[in-house]
Amino acid sequence: MKRGLAILIGAIAAGLCMFLCVQMTLGSRKEAAQAMPKENGSLLPELHWLENWLGLDADQTQKVKALHLAYLPKCEDLCHRVHLSNEEILALSGRSPQLDAPMRSAIEERAKLTVECQQALLEHVYQTAACLRPDQSRKYLDLMVPYTLGLPD
After folding, report:
1. Tens-place pLDDT, residues 10-54
2. What is the C-alpha to C-alpha distance for residues 23 and 16, in angstroms, rounded to an integer?
3. Contact 115/131 with Cβ under 8 angstroms?
4. CB-hemisphere CA count at 13 Å for 84?
5. What is the pTM of this model?
């Protein structure tokens, strides 16, 4: 059950992230922003699972939503930077049949960006956990910290 829930949460988070990346990549974020229903500037259906799963009260739900909305611009920026980094690596790979200095440098920069992304998301997860009761926080952290760090169950 725990593994299935982790997979579901991971799929939802990955889907949301990929959606945001695709929207930024295609340059149609403005059109999507106008067409999709939002609450305070953000798509929030992804928070309903958390509210239901942990049984959040109204105050907790508002705090979690506020944190989510505050984190979203940073998430979008990091996603855009990952996309640009990936494009650079792919362009470099097409120019040389070997692992040369520019490719090594681009890969190192991508690795630093990956660390930055994990740290930002982990900080957000801990901030969210701080809004919860101790039992809710432990349950949330037990699920999200391994997922955030890309660790297997």
Report:
1. 545 554 455 555 455 444 444 434 434 455 554 567 788 899 999
2. 11
3. no
4. 9
5. 0.69
